[in-house]
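Z., the sequence and structure:
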Amino acid sequence: MRRTARVRSRAPRLFPCAVALVAAAGLSQFAAPAPHRAVAATVCEGADAAARKPAGSRAGGDPNVVSADRARAMQADLAGRLAGLGATHVPLAAAPTSIPVYVHVIHAGGAGRLDGGVVAAQIDHLNATYGGQGAGNTPTRFHFELAGTDWTDNAGWYTGMTPGSAAEQAMKTALRKGDQGTLNLYTAHLGESLLGWSTFPDAYRSRPTDDGVVILDDSLPGGPATHYNEGNTATHEIGHWLGLFHTFQGGCLFPGDYVDDTPPERTPGYGCPEGRHSCPGGGLDPIHNFMDYGYDSCMTQFTPGQVQLMSKSWAAYRS
């Protein structure tokens, strides 16, 4: 079961500078290799060697980290799926797409019981960020339509939610709706200081019930998660659900995040570190990208290459 987690946590935590952090199913062999990625690995030292621990760590291994070999296998799987579709994948990847969204609000009495206005504001924010709003942003083909909202009063689920936990599995088994093209978005008070996590598109075939995105209830627009309360946690995690890597995937090593127009980034960018340049060559770090770890106020953009990757991933796995 492959996941990715947004670890822009409420309390900073540490992780080793790994070659491969989180891989997504939408690895595009069709993007031309970026020359700036063909650089030697740099040694992680000091703060870079201990930036943050990947979210969701538990006994038996971290579900958010995959090896370079696994990333290549996922890329090959995407390529095979697109090859199987042949020329039909082109119109599938280009057509405007409305994604039905079921929002499942988990709460414990009054705690976490988000009202309909907050849910609506989150959907509006998704349509703004995926619609091209923001400095340097590229509009995608995706539009999100709220298909339904339900509220579940369950203190065990609300406070015990971590990736792969019994609470998560029980919640999703009971509540998930729709098919591979339906987004199920769950809110709860997450453990391990997490903001959220997501499954990858290719995982639907083997674990359809697990498919979806889980986010911290406080991260929705207007919530109390300081610096992370404008709705970009959902934007970030849904990027993974649509097949994107983090911008710092692979660090400074080729092929990085498999998108040729995101500069390589050695480690996540926290806060809004203007002028950060962590890899030799390739330009400044993409700190304003929705797939980095910056403050919500700092995140404003998807690149054309990321939009193309999401579209191909949709055609291969979710259409």
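The chain is about 25% helix and 15% strand. The beta strands are 3-6, 97-107, 142-153, 183-188, 196-199, 213-216, 270-271, 293-294.

Let me know what you think.
H.
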